[in-house]
């Protein structure tokens, strides 16, 4: 076999092996999307109930709460970046990180200092590689986020929010995550978590007038208890969305990888055939040439 | 009298939902019983049992932790970060 032909055959074989792997990963991701999506759906009654309760309290009380009041001057802002633990998901992580960078740029131009809270090994790796500091990191459970993680994250950001700015506390908290729009689209989303913006109207499709609630024990206590829960549920939702989006992104990336492998295989097969034919043609030419020479000698 | 529309919701799923004639829950102030026609209410749960009496007289018990109870126009929502049927 000619050298050229051998090289092509090797390349075909390697593309075939890769295709087997990417195909398997595509199928795995596809089956996981369903599960992740189901979890997003299952958690909506909770977030809807909480949003509703928070709007009820906010509408019928004029209580100023620490979490809802805009501080006079914002010295430091926190950015919570939600990425995945694993790659092989196309632009999934890089688009979130890019969005986070743009946000930081904007915040810095407003004279704010930026501190980071990172979720997912990819974000942590990105920051470590650039030797940039971050306040807290959570890794290892972004594929299948549990509510405890959301709780932990919420506690950490609330603690930072309630601390004084002079103590290294923050006055503003933003979340950057991938939102699951459809199987084909995942868009990076930036949301300001704290201080809470007007809650009514958000995620509240039916604008029925809220009844006049009786609060037990009283408005302040209810608000005190509700707002952190609201934050938790928002973070949990972001985590679930990001997990679903990650699987969708993986599926898409692996599908295009398999398609590319297919194309490579076709191209190399064609080249290999050409090389084989060229080799045969050359051999025939050699034989004919050799025979002619023998005839001419006689 | 109309029945109550009850749903018990935890952070990751809806634990139970259906019709009921009475709901008893523990708030930070003490036990509270809710019958159809109760005024709108928003209360913090103290954690513990939530007892739901079905129209047929059967009883369902759920454990709810860290959450709140909201009542409005005969619909009751028990929302807790952790909740499960006992």
TrEMBL record, chain A:
Keywords: ATP synthesis, Cell membrane, CF(1), Hydrogen ion transport, Ion transport, Membrane, Transport. It is found in: Cell membrane; Membrane. InterPro entries: ATP_synth_F1_ATPase_gsu, ATP_synth_F1_gsu. It is a peripheral membrane protein. Belongs to the ATPase gamma chain family. F-type ATPases have 2 components, CF(1) - the catalytic core - and CF(0) - the membrane proton channel. CF(1) has five subunits: alpha(3), beta(3), gamma(1), delta(1), epsilon(1). CF(0) has three main subunits: a, b and c. HAMAP family: ATP_synth_gamma_bact. Produces ATP from ADP in the presence of a proton gradient across the membrane. The gamma chain is believed to be important in regulating ATPase activity and the flow of protons through the CF(0) complex. This is ATP synthase gamma chain. It comes from Agromyces humatus.
UniProtKB/TrEMBL annotation, chain B:
It is found in: Cell membrane. It comes from the Bacteria. Pfam families: ATP-synt_DE_N (PF02823). The keyword Membrane applies. It is a peripheral membrane protein. Keywords: ATP synthesis, CF(1), Ion transport, Membrane, Transport. Residues 4-83 form the ATP synthase F1 complex delta/epsilon subunit N-terminal domain. Belongs to the ATPase epsilon chain family. PANTHER family: ATP SYNTHASE DELTA/EPSILON CHAIN, ATP SYNTHASE EPSILON CHAIN, CHLOROPLASTIC. F-type ATPases have 2 components, CF(1) - the catalytic core - and CF(0) - the membrane proton channel. CF(1) has five subunits: alpha(3), beta(3), gamma(1), delta(1), epsilon(1). CF(0) has three main subunits: a, b and c. This is ATP synthase F1 complex delta/epsilon subunit N-terminal domain-containing protein. It comes from Agromyces humatus.
């Amino acid at each position: 076999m000619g050298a050229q032909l051998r090289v092509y055959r090797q390349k075909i074989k390697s593309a075939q092996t890769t295709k087997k792997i990417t195909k398997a990963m595509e199928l795995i991701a596809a089956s996981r999307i369903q599960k992740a999506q189901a979890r997003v759906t299952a958690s909506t009654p909770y977030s809807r109930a909480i949003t509703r309760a928070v709007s009820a309290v906010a509408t019928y009380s004029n209580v100023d709460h620490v979490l809802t009041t805009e501080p006079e001057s914002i010295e430091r802002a926190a950015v919570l970046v939600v990425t995945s633990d694993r790659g092989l998901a196309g632009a999934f992580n890089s688009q979130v990180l890019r969005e986070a960078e743009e946000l930081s740029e904007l915040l810095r131009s407003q004279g704010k200092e930026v501190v980071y809270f990172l979720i997912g090994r990819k974000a942590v790796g990105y920051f470590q590689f650039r030797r940039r500091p971050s306040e807290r990191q959570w890794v290892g459970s972004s594929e299948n986020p549990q509510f405890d993680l959301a709780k932990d994250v919420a506690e950490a950001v609330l603690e930072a929010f309630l601390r004084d700015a002079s103590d290294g506390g923050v006055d503003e908290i933003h979340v950057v995550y991938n939102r699951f729009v459809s199987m084909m689209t995942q868009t990076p989303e930036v949301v300001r978590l704290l201080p809470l913006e007007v809650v009514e109207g958000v995620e509240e499709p039916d604008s029925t007038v809220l009844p006049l609630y009786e609060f037990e024990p009283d408005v302040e206590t209810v608000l005190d208890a509700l707002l952190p829960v609201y934050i938790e549920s928002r973070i949990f939702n972001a985590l679930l969305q990001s997990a679903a989006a990650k699987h969708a992104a993986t599926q898409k990336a692996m599908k295009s990888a398999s398609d590319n492998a297919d194309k490579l295989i076709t191209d190399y097969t064609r080249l290999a055939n050409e090389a084989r034919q060229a080799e045969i043609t050359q051999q025939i030419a050699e034989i004919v040439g050799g025979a002619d020479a023998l005839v001419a000698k006689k | 009298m109309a029945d109550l529309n009850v749903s018990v919701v935890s952070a990751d799923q809806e634990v139970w939902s259906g019709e009921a004639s009475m709901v008893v829950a523990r708030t930070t102030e003490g036990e509270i019983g809710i019958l159809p026609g109760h005024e709108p209410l928003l209360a913090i749960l103290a954690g513990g049992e939530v007892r739901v009496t079905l129209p047929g007289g059967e009883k369902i018990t759920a454990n709810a932790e860290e959450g709140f109870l909201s009542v409005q126009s005969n619909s009751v929502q028990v929302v807790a970060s952790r909740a499960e049927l006992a």
